[in-house]
Amino acid sequence: MIRPAVYSDDLYPLAVEFYKNANFPVEYDEQDLRDILNQIKETGLVLVAVEEFEIVGFIGGLITDYTLNKKKKVFQEAMWYVTPEFRGLGRDLYTSLVNVLKTLEIDYMVMACLNNEFHDVVDRFYKKEGFTLLEKHYLRAV
């Protein structure tokens, strides 16, 4: 079952797994990760996948005005993670997200394609779904 997240949903364990799989070179701070999860639940949009009363995946992000055209609304994905044994629900989360965004009259969605083991699969998926590659980000310590 896919449903909107509620404030009491504990997404932190899944967010930690998302972070581990993302291969980010910067260590996360536990409280900051909890804070961003609460922020996207309060002011953005988060959908969860539930199997046998357990949350096994989620997709979430912020809804903002487009930087250069405030008349346009944008959903900016922050995290999308499904436990390995339920990976097939990832598409259901995505489809449900698109439907909710249409209902909310959101104009655009910005999705991430991380540089990890899933990069090629996610890249093909986004292209098939009609996304346009906008930019790549690089990170280094200073």
Plain-language structure description:
With 142 residues, the protein is α+β, with helices and mostly antiparallel strands. It has one domain (2-128): 3-Layer(aba) Sandwich (Aminopeptidase). The protein is 35% helix and 29% strand. It is globular and about 40 Å long.
Descriptive key words:
globular, Aminopeptidase, 29% strand, alpha+beta, single chain, 5-stranded mixed beta sheet
Quick overview:
This protein is α+β, with helices and mostly antiparallel strands and 142 residues long. It has a single domain (2-128), classed as Gcn5-related N-acetyltransferase (GNAT) (Aminopeptidase, 3-Layer(aba) Sandwich). The protein contains 4 helices and 5 strands; from the N terminus they run E-H-H-E-E-E-H-E-H.
